[in-house]
């Protein structure tokens, strides 16, 4: 997968193969932004210092917690709050903050840059194509929901049936972002987030 400007001047990708993973997309974004850097130095206010939510995913929390279940649970309790995702109708965790992200310094340096949330890695503040935005949102929703599910599996007494339902999400207890996009799309279809004919357009 490669990112490019399409004929409408929007950020788009060339194609998704059957084995293209989330990690491939993240690498494509990094390569694209290296060649097309965002104007952060001229930006009046860092996007990491705004009131909007910093949505947290399971891989980010597990990495920050060194893959320790207890530390991950403590991080969730101490640093995050639940917020409803009304678009997808599930709860997700966001940083418990007013304005500045907990991890931004006065010099606009992200102190968890290598482990930052996937929503930060997928963020490009210029016009993007519809299909790019759809893929970005589906990846984000899958990993955001995975944090809620992992937290409940760790800290609540759940029925076997509910655990099975949670484990259908391909990101639950994943070790990274190397999940095939087709698995994300299949899960999104099962969840009613994506219709079969829409997959063909991605
Ligand atoms: S990513 Fe975009 S919005 Fe954020 S600081 Fe850079 S230019 Fe500004
Ligand atoms: S985690 Fe890092 S990149 Fe993401 S909002 Fe916070 S400071 Fe910015």
TrEMBL record:
Superkingdom of the source? Bacteria
> Which InterPro entries does this entry report, sorted A to Z?
Puta_zinc/iron-chelating_dom (IPR005358)
Q: What is this protein's name?
A: YkgJ family cysteine cluster protein
Q: Which Pfam families match?
A: CxxCxxCC (PF03692)
